[in-house]
Design a protein that fits this description.
Elements: H1 4-12, H2 17-30, H3 34-82, E1 91-97, E2 100-106, H4 108-116, E3 119-124, E4 127-132, H5 133-143, E5 147-149
Antiparallel strand pairs: 1-2, 3-4, 3-5
Helix pairs in contact: 3-5
Length: 152
């Protein structure tokens, strides 16, 4: 039969062939299936890799979001630091925003600076601010949609 103890028990009459066969079957059924355990390990590894990829993608999106927020904050800070005051408003300067004609009251020198591209109009929350061209370049790098009118 293969197992010396089973053979001895059979010869002694303590067990019959049916009982030996049943014991072998139970032993085989209880034995862990190597293929099933490998498959479970592969599934666990695949799930772990999928989770890692998902975490990496989430981290990348969060990093990108942080960078965008940082750029917005930098652009707003540039506007706050380098915004020009309107000197004795004399004329209206007309410009287009969202397909609507808007106007800003500025001085004659500022109108000239705007038309030559030396000044730009940027949007700061709900108001418009004049900035110099070099500041407008920096704002454009960070958040170009804040620049409303600039003749380069």
């Amino acid at each position: 039969m293969g197992n010396p103890f089973q053979d001895q028990f059979l010869k002694a009459g303590l067990v019959n062939k049916k009982q030996v066969k049943k014991a072998k079957h139970e032993k085989r059924v209880k034995r862990p299936n190597k293929d099933a355990s490998k498959q479970k390990a592969n599934e666990a590894m695949a799930a772990k890799k999928a989770q890692e990829r998902q975490n990496q993608e989430l981290n990348r999106k969060l990093q990108q979001q942080r960078q965008e927020e940082e750029k917005k904050a930098q652009a707003r800070q540039l506007i706050a630091d380098h915004g020009l005051e309107i000197e004795q408003p004399e004329e209206f300067y007309h410009f287009v925003e969202d397909n609507k004609i808007k106007r800003l009251q500025v001085s004659g020198n500022q109108v000239e600076g705007l038309s030559r591209g030396q000044l730009a109009i940027v949007k700061d929350d709900a108001s418009y601010v004049l900035v110099e061209a070099k500041v407008a370049h920096k704002i454009k790098e960070r958040q170009g949609e804040l620049i409303i009118a600039w003749h380069q």
